[in-house]
Amino acid sequence: MRTAFIIHGSSGSKDTHWYPWLKEKLEEKELQVFLPQFPIEEDKQTLQNWLDTLRPMKEHLSDSIIVGHSLGVPFILNVLNQWEVSARATFLVAGFSGHLKAEGEPNLDDFAERDFDWKKIKQNCKHFSVIHSDNDPYIPLGRAEELAKNLGVNVTLVKGGEHFQAQSGFQTFPLLLEKIGAELLPGS
Asked: Closest Cα partner for 104 from 162, 12, 42?
């Protein structure tokens, strides 16, 4: 059975925004979906703790679809950079790499301020898609464009999507589902 992973953002919950909706839609397409809850307390939201949380599921990453939102994006980049995996496709939503200053968000640099081996990351995943908003209040569009350039893809720009959170109207995310279906799921 093909698998999918949905990785939430900083200080986030697996039960918010569009994550449960996407999980349900992918399960309808007969995917086994992992939607882990990562440690989000200030002293526990570390790259190592997140890697330790995902490690028991590592064997399911082969040929998987991985979706990351916000801090979930540099986390996924670390997974593809550090582990020997062969993911099928990665969808990066409102993401970044490198230093990002965000008030009240713990340990962002632990995840993102690194020298990623972009060649290795691209070897560990066949397809990348970067989705960003033209008015994200936390992550400037230029950061998404830099990320997309490093991955050799273009940014899919969403007008008025802010940070793709429930409070911005993103309890569902049809565009993301459509991109996953159009590129990866036959008959979608």
From this structure: 42
pLDDT digits (tens, 9 = 90+) for 1-13: 899 999 999 988 9
Distances from the Cα of 59 to the Cα of 2, 64, 83, 184, angstroms: 12, 10, 11, 20
Q: What's the start-to-end Cα distance of the chain, in Å? A: 17
**Domain boundaries of the chain, sorted by first residue:** 3-184
Q: Is residue 133 within 8 Å of 170, Cβ to Cβ?
A: no
Per residue in 107-116, pLDDT (tens digit) is: 899 999 999 9
Q: 150 near 130, Cβ under 8 Å?
A: no
Question: 112 by DSSP, 3-state: which?
Answer: helix
Per CATH, domain 3-184 is 3.40.50.1820 = yes
Nearest CA to 158 out of 150, 147, 170, 166 is that of 170
